[in-house]
Amino acid sequence: xxxxxxxxxxxxxxxxxxxxxxxxxxxxxxxxxxxxxxxxxxxxxxxxxxxxxxxxxxxxxxxxxxxxxxxxxxxxxxxxxxxxxxxxxxxxxxxxxxxxxxxxxxxxxxxxxxxxxxxxxxxxxxxxxxxxxxxxxxxxxxxxxxxxxxxxxxxxxxxxxxxxxxxxxxxxxxxxxxxxxxxxxxxxxxxxxxxxxxxxxxxxxxxxxxxxxxxxxxxxxxxxxxxxxxxxxxxxxxxxxxxxxxxxxxxxxxxxxxxxxxxxxxxxxxxxxxxxxxxxxxxxxxxxxxxxxxxxxxxxxxxxxxxxxxxxxxxxxxxxxxxxxxxx
Length: 328
Known about the structure:
By secondary structure, this protein is an all-alpha fold. Helices cover 76% and strands 0% of the residues. The protein has helices at 2-38, 41-53, 57-73, 82-95, 99-112, 119-132, 136-147, 153-167, 174-187, 195-212, 222-231, 235-239, 243-265, 269-307, 309-312. Helix 2 packs antiparallel against helix 3, helix 6 packs antiparallel against helix 7 and helix 8 (153-167) runs parallel beside helix 10 (195-212). The radius of gyration is 35 Å and the shape is elongated. The termini are far apart.
């Protein structure tokens, strides 16, 4: 009985050991297959696209770079999505904030595939990167190249919107901004205009309304502010809705004038002349301050109005993601 039980226990142990060995072998085989797949171009590209969809642009750029490494290591390898990978590498670098690397990647795409269907989007992405870094001249150059391209009307429309925005950076360029916006509206009137282009045209129309409203903003008159301050120090600042500054200016000028008058009344002419000179400079500064603050008031009013366009032209969900907003 005991001997039989020992044999049964041994058999059970042997079966368990055999099952464990088979399970480990099966797991190793699966891991080998997965490892092989992870190192294939198709798997790396799929993984990179997944990271991009999750918004992990830094890691996505790394994986797109790995996909491109296959092309460098095996020049004869067939990589049918090489152009796309090069563009998406540059785009993800741009969205990850790697400006210099993104510009190099966009340029590499243009050098290797000058006729690629991704060139319009690459130019748009380069424009975004340059604009974000403050290089508006370079950004304009990339956007303007897009205006004549018929291969990607949506990218051209976005470029026109950006050029319109940049034209509003300085007062006096509203006419140029209108031209760009009207171009977007006109492009959407074609028979082949898609839904996205119609959306951009709607943005352009809304932006045109805001631009047309610029001359009707409640600006202040610099000459009136200066004249008021010349007649009564502080009146110009009160006109600019700065009551505290107005009170300070009125009090300081009043005290200097009072001190000057008392000095002459007491026969202290030297002190009277000195105070008069100080008061003349202070008085002139008061007038200049009112005029200067009026220009600043008007500029800020204009910028605040244009900031409302940021919600219209927020391209974060459309391309390389530069949120447009004025900084004053």
